[in-house]
Write a structure and sequence with these properties.
The chain has 234 residues and is α/β, with parallel strands linked by helices. The protein has eight helices and eight strands; from the N terminus they run βββαβαβαβαααβαβα. It has one domain (2-233): Alpha/Beta hydrolase fold, catalytic domain (Rossmann fold, 3-Layer(aba) Sandwich), CATH 3.40.50. It has helices at residues 41-52, 77-93, 106-115, 133-139, 146-152, 157-163, 181-190, 210-233, and strands spanning 2-8, 13-19, 26-31, 56-60, 98-104, 121-127, 168-173, 195-200.
């Protein structure tokens, strides 16, 4: 596996591009959550595991996070969607036309909203992803993130998943303490076929138990191998 530090987009988004030893034809982009970054153990683990199976991976920091430019206080759904579009542009410029997106928590929300309007996403996986943002943000105090608060009422995630015309896998922990399990059920009910939902018993929001995280990684890998490689062979 090769790792290369990259920069792209208006905000100088920082990414790490992982390419398998053998030339790959498919790529997966990972989208981190609100307070996370590309360097979270889960995304590093995903990149290493996927590369061993012949999938390239781009993990990157949204603007204002990690090593990317911008201010975290300016975080918004609109901004993060633009960042994911820039990531899609980047992997397309590298020659990858068969691309999947995986997002965790708010990164999953951004992934759903972007997939609804960007046909370049050929398969989607969400982990612990909220879809009823007004409900969630009423009980979660987010200090200093006024742009994000204003954005919450502008986007309909349920409508977006209905418009996401690609295979969708929804993964959620049964003991998620931040995003109720009902959000996964709503996403699944409204997604188009082919779709699947996998509830990991006993798992919390961050999938901190190593066995729970490994289960999520393997489910995600199998989904992308089935649906991305199938599209690439079509």
């Amino acid at each position: 596996m090769k790792e290369k530090n990259v920069r792209f987009g208006e905000y100088g988004l920082a990414g790490v591009f992982h390419s398998p030893r053998e030339e790959a034809s498919t790529c997966v982009i990972t989208c981190h959550g609100l307070y996370s970054s590309k360097d979270s153990e889960k995304y590093v683990g995903v990149a290493h595991r996927f590369c061993r199976e012949g999938l390239a991976v781009l993990r990157f920091d949204f603007r204002g996070c990690g090593e990317s430019g911008g201010r975290f206080e300016e975080t918004s759904l609109a901004g993060r969607m633009e960042d994911l579009e820039d990531a899609l542009d980047f992997v397309q410029e590298q020659g990858y036309e068969t691309v999947g997106v995986m997002g965790s928590s708010l990164g999953g929300t951004v992934a759903v909203l972007t997939t609804a309007k960007d046909k370049r996403v050929k398969a989607l996986v969400t982990w612990a992803t909220p879809c009823r943002l007004d409900e969630l943000f009423r009980v979660e105090v987010i200090s200093g993130l006024e742009k994000l608060r204003q954005d919450v009422s502008k986007y309909d995630v349920v409508k977006a998943v209905k418009e996401a015309h690609c295979p969708v896998l929804i993964i959620h922990g049964s003991l998620d303490e931040q995003v109720p399990l009902s959000h996964a059920e709503v996403l699944y009910e409204n997604a188009n076929e082919p779709k699947n939902v996998q509830i990991i018993e006993g798992a919390n929001h961050r999938l901190t138990n190593p066995s729970h995280r490994r289960r999520a990684v393997e489910l995600t890998l199998d989904w992308f191998k089935e649906h991305l490689k199938r599209k690439n062979m079509a």
